[in-house]
Amino acid sequence: SFSITSNATLITAEIIEFFSEHNISLMISLDGPEEINNSNRIYANGKGTYADVMKKVKLIQQVAPAYFDQVQISMVMDPSK
To answer: How many Cα atoms occupy the beta-carbon half-sphere of 60 within 13 Å?
Structure first.
C-alpha cells in the first residue's frame, strides 16, 4: 500500500484520478481555521495556504467523490494559538 501526506496545493485532477485508480491514500495537512493554518503553513512569499488547500479539497470531492470519502486530514496542534 502507498500513502502520501501533502498540503494538496499541487494536486491536480489527473493526480486525483491516478491516486484513486491505484488506491493511494492521501492525507492533507490542514491546521485548523484559516487564521491558524496560515500562521504556520505559508508559501515562500509569505502567503497562507488555507484558501488553496480548501480549493483542492473541493476539487478532490468533485473529481472522485468515492475517493474523497477516504481522504484524511492531518492537523498539527500549536499550543501557542
So the answer is: 28
